[in-house]
Amino acid sequence: MKSLNLTPQLYEYLQQVSLREPDILTELRAETTQHPMARMQIAPEQGQFMAFLVELIGAKKTLDIGVFTGYSALVVALALPPDGVVIACDTDGEVTQIASRYWQAAGVAEKIHLRIAPALETLDSLLTMGQRETFDFAFIDADKRNYLEYYERSLQLLRPGGLLVVDNVLWSGRVADPADQDARTEAIRRFNQQLQGDERITLSLIPVADGLTLARKRDS
Ligand code: CA
Question: What is the CATH number of domain 8-217?
Answer without folding.
Answer: 3.40.50.150
